[in-house]
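Researcher: Next entry in the queue.
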Amino acid sequence: MFTNRIILRNISTTTKLKCSKKLKDLLESAATGLDQKPISKENTWSTSPYPEGAVFDKRDQSKKVDRLKVDPRDTSIILFPGQGSQYVGMAEKLVKIPEVRDMFQIAKEVLGYDLLEICLKGPKHKLDQTVYAQPAIAVTSLASLERLKESRPNAIETCVATSGFSLGEITALIFAGSIPFDEGIKLIQIRAEEMQKASERNPSGMATVFYGPDSSLGEACTKAKEWCIERGIENAECQIANFLFPHCKVVAGSLEALNFLEKNKQQFKLRKIKRLPVSGAFHTKLMASAIEPFKKALNKIKINDPYIYVHSCIDGKIYKNADQIYKQLPKQIIKPVRWEQLLHIMYERGKNEHFPKTFECAPGNSLTSILKEVNARAWSSAIVVEK
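Model: Structure for this entry, 387 residues:
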């Protein structure tokens, strides 16, 4: 049986020297993950050890072994939200927990400003800015693990997999013990600042698009981009940036391209278009300038192999080791978030098998809403951690 693993105990030496004894105690009692051997290439078969086409259903030796089977219903999956889930007042209930106050104190020292003040009081236009929204969501999400630990301690101890939407993937890696808490928050700050700069260079945004089987979303994006190019708009872009669930995607691109889609949605039989509270076309080539500064900051961090499975937003597959995190995480800034595909991989089960309980950490409940559209059976046991 796995034992609790402290997600903050590998906090960097610099911050340890700054923190009081109370904060050091936090690092030994904060939200936890699983104590599992790191995932590595050595633990996987490069090829099957059995002849191709071999049939084992009548010769399954595992059926003759007396071993304890874990009921999936006694395990959990923990999900972390991305940018767009922020709102003024988030963490208001969580901050009553002493460990959460300490988390925000560490964040204040790392970021150089009072993040908690912005979470609680805004103003909204400030909280919605990428440079503040990303650290605010990450710390609030990790803080909500303390609420989960109080109400359902086994949910953390029995976690079998985790992931996060875009920004939330870094939150998941902190939870899984790959990235130290303080260095992870600093990394998110650099990511947010560089993405904000990229957004200012190219006025752009994102919008959720609902469509039907008779719609032409791909053609609509192509026409929108062409319309921008014809009018001399620099770095014109329009593409699917987030795959959410059937007949629902997030499109990102130049502001003029999004305006084109809104004005011509009937032509392409698009049902509904809703702008997102973000300042740029994330997960497109318009964010390319953010990659190198992010990669440089990432390479300065000692990343550990995850203690539990962490699924990547790029392809839905698990990170095998730290080296893969170094290589793949920077690409996530310009690659589409394939969340729908990720959920299919994460929740793949046999026809009559049960699903783990799913816990979505604050703020918001967008990920459980998406899960309902992708896998209703898995959603039936999903819980949003109290905000």
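Model: The two ends are 30 Å apart (CA to CA).
Researcher: Noted, moving on.
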